[in-house]
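Hey, I was hoping to borrow your eyes for a little while. No rush at all, and the record is pasted right below.
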Amino acid sequence: MTAFAYENLAYPIRSDIPKTNRAIWDHLASAGCWWTGAERVAMAAEVRCARSCALCRKRKTSLAPDSVEGEHDDGAQLPPPVVEAVHRLATDSGRLKKTWFDGLIENGLTDAMYVEIVAVVAVVLAVDEFHHALGLPLEPLPDPIAGEPSRYRPPGAKPADAWVPVILAEDAVGEEADLYGGGNRIVNVVSALSLIPDSVRMADRILNTYYVFGADMPNLSKNSGRALKRSQMEFIAARVSAMNDCFY
């Protein structure tokens, strides 16, 4: 069975969407910089588990989510700090605090491990929410691909305005020279992933497919050939961001 088969739907799906979704699943199943493919797929399973997690529901409705104690409903495959990170990122990311992040670090995660978790959660939500929006069943998670993490930390990453070190435009050289398309304009939500360079590359592909091409982003008259006008796209994006308590 072909993954992401959209041929028999009542409405057309652009051909680049299933190609990107398959690339995301291959990326998810492979070892990253700090986590194996099996661990990354287990994180993806936790993203889905978080939707029905009783603790996550209680925290979501609480004025002070950090004060709500308990255990997550989980698949028991990952360490508790990883499960906590995945569930909170998937269900209540708009209210995360630096003290929460610091607690994860104190409990054994590194800044780069955390960034890779963020990237996994983001790509799984992108694909799953596309299916939810169209009323489609979720795609089965991929089988993990054997391999060890590279443990690569980009030398150009340094402290900036984020909780974690990032690669700035002037430091995107060498193996990271391609990260921002050779330009000086960097989208913060993308550069925040730059401790894991391949996650930036995947985020760029997702933006090009689901939103607009990076080169077209500053020009609000360009919509990268989409069916919607750019103004319509931005209206929808702003509404969704507001509903998700997005910082932006």
